[in-house]
Design brief:
heterodimer; A: 24% strand; B: alpha/beta; 4-stranded antiparallel β-sheet; globular
């Protein structure tokens, strides 16, 4: 399997009044055309890792790495113009909540067409046809009607599907999905994941799936990276989850209440200071 | 059977849309009652109707056997019934310190010895006095939800209405907040009515539950029945499947 993305010793830090906050502290991994899950609780640096790859880190933050390479392009030294052309066309990102990540004053269809026409030279009519075809691909019934709706007129699940359509229309090779289903209902979650699953395997994309739900990630991905306090504490194959060694990984696995288990109180994470070292 | 909260043929409509369609539930004192369903099923509307936050079109609500005015609730009602909302980022005033947030219900209900109560409430939710003069933006999501719980508990209600209290939280923090809720319920012998779309959470917390769909209760069952799979509705079965997690279609 060829390597598409190489991340070596990635660091992201934010200067604040009270000193430097290190959000990501030396994360390294490689990614081919496979599905990689990044799991951790809030503040573990998982989203900042995804954002650094996308080039969406806030301007005042410092990003450094000994290597951050996408298909032969050094992302750290690439000029802004190159990164802009990558973003959306070859690397795309699905954000958490469609309520906030879609443009509220633009119809869903126009937003999808905007992405497409930014990266490809296509006519208006063709762009519209492709956007509608894409909406159908994410299993939106009556795609022609949804094309003209605004984000507030659709449900959360439909909004997230539109978001997926928008991100996939330019045919990216790498998709970063940052908590793509956390804002959705359990039943809708499954539908959206099913669609994502199908499209990712059909198109042979690389996927980075960021979530705090370890079980969900492991059912969706081939490989899982577990992050704590900006560092990778454990990396393991999704099928190998039962053999997780790090107490943090085990804690994440056990803390969810599930049907048929009767545990009162639920086991909670007993955070050890040495995990963060 | 003694009943502490009862809703009878409750209907909430927004113009032509029936958010809640002749729903009846009875909750016994000291029990934890769950409401599950997908978004738009009316589970939050029912909870808000009980709290007096939804415009009830028809039906009756009774507390301790005494019928309530569906449009107006007096202070005595809120002394008994308190609510915790879903999103701790939205339910705490951003420009008030924790101390000020916790003073508010005490001031409204004219409760004396606020000093002791605030310290006790903070202690009870596992935060301690050092959090007293912080602002909510200085707290994590789990800590904020603890403050929201402290604010509800501080006037010692008997009934807590919980609207998805952990769905905005991380899995690991969710476990901590659920444990806290269980513990205060045991210590204070509270009655809970809890809304969630996660069957795992509801069966963990509640003894009985009602499954809602399109503004109606489609099934009532005990958690033990649910776990054993004694279900009659396909809709509930779908929720069961969903709660077991994602299964890859073409797993290799």
């Amino acid at each position: 399997m060829s390597t598409m993305l190489t991340v070596d010793d990635l660091r992201v830090s934010f200067p604040t009044r009270t000193g430097l906050i290190e959000a990501v502290r030396g994360v390294s991994f490689t990614l081919g055309r496979e599905r990689l899950g990044i799991v951790g609780e809030s503040g573990s640096g998982k989203s900042q890792t995804g954002r650094a790859i996308m080039g969406l880190t806030p301007a005042h933050a410092k990003v450094s790495a000994s290597k951050l390479n996408f298909d032969g392009i050094d992302l750290l030294t690439a000029p802004a113009k190159v990164r802009r052309s990558l973003r959306g066309s070859r690397i795309a990102m699905i954000l958490q909540d469609p309520k906030y990540s879609l443009n509220p004053v633009m119809s869903i269809g126009r937003q999808i067409v905007e992405t497409l026409r930014t990266h490809e030279n296509v006519g208006k009519r063709e762009a519209r046809d492709r956007a509608i075809a894409m909406l159908e691909a994410v299993q939106i019934r009556d795609a022609g009607r949804v094309y003209d709706l605004h984000p507030h007129e659709v449900s959360g699940g439909m909004g997230q599907r539109a978001m997926i359509a928008m991100m996939l229309i330019a045919g990216p090779e790498l998709l970063v999905a940052d908590e793509p289903t956390s804002a959705l209902d359990v039943t809708v979650q499954l539908e959206v994941l099913g669609i994502l699953d199908k499209l990712v395997s059909e198109r042979g994309m690389g996927l980075i799936f960021i979530s705090h739900d370890l079980r969900l990630v492991s059912s969706f991905c081939d490989r899982v990276i577990v992050m704590y306090a900006g560092k990778i504490v454990e990396e393991l194959a999704a099928s190998d989850l039962g053999n997780a060694k790090h107490p943090y990984t085990q804690g994440l696995l056990n803390c969810m209440p599930t049907l048929g288990t009767n545990r009162h109180p639920l086991p909670v994470l007993d955070r050890q200071p040495e995990w963060a070292l | 059977m003694t009943v502490i909260v009862s809703a009878e043929n409750l209907t909430v409509s927004y113009d032509d849309f029936l958010a809640l369609d002749t729903v009846s539930i009875d909750v016994e004192p000291g029990e934890s009652f769950g409401l599950v369903g997908e978004s738009g099923s009316g589970k939050s509307t029912l909870l808000r109707a009980i709290a007096g936050l939804s415009p009830v079109t028809s039906g009756r609500i009774a507390l301790d056997g005494k019928p309530l005015d569906v449009r107006y609730r007096d202070k005595a009602f809120y002394r008994q019934v308190q609510m915790v909302f879903q999103d701790p980022y939205g339910s705490l005033h951003p420009r008030q310190t924790v101390d000020r947030l916790l003073q508010e219900p005490l001031a409204i209900h004219g409760v004396a010895d606020s000093e002791r109560r605030i310290l006790r409430a903070l202690d009870e939710v596992g935060l301690g006095a050092s959090f007293r003069f912080r602002y909510s933006h200085q707290l994590s999501g789990g800590q904020r939800q603890r403050i929201a719980i402290a604010r509800a508990l501080i006037i010692e209600p008997q009934i807590m209405l919980l609207d998805e209290p952990t769905s905005a939280l991380d899995a690991s923090v969710q476990a901590e907040v659920l444990n806290l809720l269980e513990q205060v319920r045991r210590d204070r012998k509270l009655t809970y009515i809890m809304v969630s779309h996660d069957l795992g959470v509801v069966t963990h917390m509640c003894e009985r539950l009602a499954v809602m769909k399109n503004g109606k209760v489609v099934e009532r069952l005990s958690s033990a029945d649910l776990v054993a799979g004694r279900l009659s509705e396909d809709y509930t079965k779908n929720l069961m499947v969903a709660s077991k997690g994602f299964v890859r279609a073409n797993a290799v």
